[in-house]
Design goal:
409 residues, alpha+beta, Rossmann fold, Chorismate Mutase Domain, subunit A, 4-stranded antiparallel sheet, 35% helix, 20% strand
Length: 409
């Protein structure tokens, strides 16, 4: 119905649809065929993606499915794109009750926002003020067809239990319960926005250049404000906010750790790490176990758990601009170094790589996933940090500059 409404409002606009197949139902192919038929009818481009749920993440199938969905959304969104979802008022109320039963605070009880930032774009929910019955009436009046997920009939899942048993019972006593609940949800949302605005100056003051959060003096402010600050910081990275108990653990075990400690707290699909006087929100990082990869000039290489590495052709214009000499081509990318000490270009002494990475203030969790650039068996550069002495291009020559983009690391 959302697509039908969009096409009616914007008959000439470019609209794309996304269908994610979780492969959990025997009817999933029929649902895909239905989406294809509807998009063909409306002249809308359809992007289809299948995901595989492992069921062993410890977060439950519903949560794992959500995580995978948002990974797909983030991969497809371009700058300032608007992703619309058809959640309605009944969905909103279910979310409110689920979070109420989990002991959520102001943010959780404000349920789903009508619009929020999502990676490079935005996520909007234009139907949040409309009930399911209202939308079904529209669909019937306009002769729209739809498919039902048979799992909705099972009350094994918490949301279905609310939908099938709890809320119908509430409706027998308070048939107009949706409107007052909607007002309460909106009030929680307004309070949440107000608190966010009040905490912004402190958050901006504490942000590091590389996205961390400075913790020096943080324990001097009220603990409830620290939690608010942490939630706002983590949500700003498009991560699900921690629970109250997890926020307490971040404060007690990560923020309050010794400055020379390197504590890590794993939360769902991300980690909170301490490094010196700041904490960082990073992806959960697996061990890199990979042989060498060819690094062609001006051809980006994307590696899960590492990021994007590019050997970019350039002209060296001054003696403080370091690039690999073209005589080192072809280049390969590796992740292990067992050789002798090395000397970065324009340094006076050789040092072992471990000591150099400390001097260059490379975060500990990145040190075993640094892209090491080789020419044959010779290490010629360490990521975008330095070129090894003797392998740099001279001023006025063409060279290869390494670019390393590390999202969420």
């Amino acid at each position: 119905m959302l697509l039908n409404a969009l096409r009616a409002l914007l008959p000439n606009a470019s609209v794309n649809a996304i269908h994610i197949n979780h492969q959990l139902s025997s009817n999933s192919q029929d649902w895909l065929n239905h989406c294809i038929d509807q998009c063909n009818r409306l002249n809308i481009n359809l992007e289809t993606v299948s995901v595989n749920l492992s069921g062993n993440t410890g977060e439950g199938l519903e949560s794992e499915a959500r995580t995978l969905r948002y990974q797909v959304f983030n991969s497809l969104l371009e700058t300032d794109d608007l992703l619309l979802m058809a959640h309605h008022l009944d969905d909103q109320i279910e979310t409110f009750f689920l979070r109420l039963m989990r002991g959520s605070g102001v943010d959780g009880l404000s349920a789903m926002p009508e619009i929020r930032a999502l990676d490079k774009g935005y996520l909007g929910r234009p139907f949040l003020s409309l009930s399911k019955a209202h939308l079904e009436n529209y669909a019937n009046e306009n002769c729209l067809s739809w498919v039902e997920d048979e799992s909705n009939a099972s009350s094994l899942f918490d949301r279905n239990f609310l939908r099938n048993q709890v809320l119908p019972l509430i409706s027998t006593r308070w048939p107009m319960y949706r409107k007052p609940l909607q007002r309460s949800i909106n009030l929680f949302g307004e309070l949440s926005k107000q608190l966010d605005q009040e905490i912004q100056p402190e958050l901006q003051h504490r942000l590091t250049a590389d996205g961390g959060l400075k913790v020096s003096g943080l324990m001097d402010i009220d603990r409830s404000l620290i939690k608010r600050l942490l939630r706002e910081w983590i949500q700003g990275k498009d991560r699900l906010p921690p629970s109250q108990s997890q926020l307490d653990t971040i404060i007690d075990s990560v923020i309050n750790a010794r400055e020379d400690a390197q504590p890590v707290l794993k939360l769902k699909d991300y980690c909170i790490r301490r490094y010196q006087s700041a904490i960082y929100c990073t992806a959960s990082l697996d061990v890199i176990d990979m042989a060498s990869i060819n690094l062609a000039v001006d051809s980006p290489v994307m590696i899960i758990g590492v990021g994007q590495v590019t050997g970019r052709s350039c002209q060296v214009n001054h003696n403080r601009e370091y690039a690999i000499a073209t005589t080192c081509l072809p280049l390969t990318l590796r992740f292990d170094y067992q050789g002798d000490s090395i000397k970065p270009a324009n340094r006076h002494k050789n040092r072992d790589l471990k000591r150099l990475l400390q001097e260059y203030r490379v975060k500990p969790w990145l040190r075993d996933r640094l892209p090491l650039i080789y020419s044959g068996e010779q290490l010629v550069a360490v990521a975008d940090i330095f070129v090894v002495d003797g392998f740099q291009a001279n001023v006025g020559e063409q060279g290869i500059k390494i670019e390393w983009i590390t999202p969420d690391l």
